[in-house]
Amino acid sequence: MKLILAVAAGQIIGALRDDWYKGAEYDYPHGWKHLNGAFDQVDLDCEEEVSFSILRHYKPKSESQDFDKACEEKQDVWLPAHRGTEKEFTTRSGKRLLYCFNPALDQHAYLDVNEDRILGDQEVSIILQ
Fold first, then answer.
1. 32 and 13 in one domain?
2. pLDDT value of residue 25
3. Which contacts qualify for 32-38: CB closer than 8 Å, 24 or more apart?
4. Residues 27 and 73 in one domain
5. Model pTM?
6. Angle in degrees, CA 31, 86, 110, rounded to 5
C-alpha cells in the first residue's frame, strides 16, 4: 500500500493513503493544512499491515470518523476532502471555496460556499487564476 507522509525534524507528523490524496491537483498537500508549519512530503510503499498501523497512529481524529462512514456507505454527499480535514478559503475575487469529495461519485470538486453549489472544472480554473 502506498502512503504519503508528512515529516518534520525527522519525525512523521501526518499520514494519508495515496488514494485519499487523489485529485489534489495543486502542489500544497491539501489534507495537511491542520499540521501548521513546514514539513517534507515523503512517499512510502509498505505492507498493508504496516500502513494500517501508521494510519491508525496519525489519523486525524474528529473529522475522519464521519468521512470514513460516508465512504464505507458510498453516500452521495459532498464532504470536506482529505478525510474531512479541508477548510474553506477565500479567493482573490472574494469567493469562499471548499475542496470536497463525494464518495458515491468518487470525485473531488470545489464547493462555492457563498452560493452553496459545486463548481465545474472550467469555473474553478477561472476563479483560481
1. yes
2. 41
3. 32/6, 32/82, 32/85, 33/85, 33/86, 33/87, 34/60, 34/85, 34/87, 35/6, 37/8, 38/8
4. no
5. 0.53
6. 110
Report the C-alpha gap between 17 and 31 in whole angstroms: 11
Domain span at residue 96?
60-129
- Amino acid identity of residue 36, one-letter, is N
Q: What is the full per-residue pLDDT of the chain (129 aa) written as tens digits?
A: 888 787 777 777 777 777 766 544 443 444 455 555 677 778 888 888 888 777 777 654 445 667 778 888 899 999 888 877 788 889 988 889 999 999 999 999 999 988 889 999 899 999 888
Domain total in the chain: 2
Domain-terminating residue out of 59, 78, 101: 59
Residues 49 and 80 both lie in one domain: no
3-state secondary structure of 40: strand
- Are 72 and 51 part of one and the same domain? no
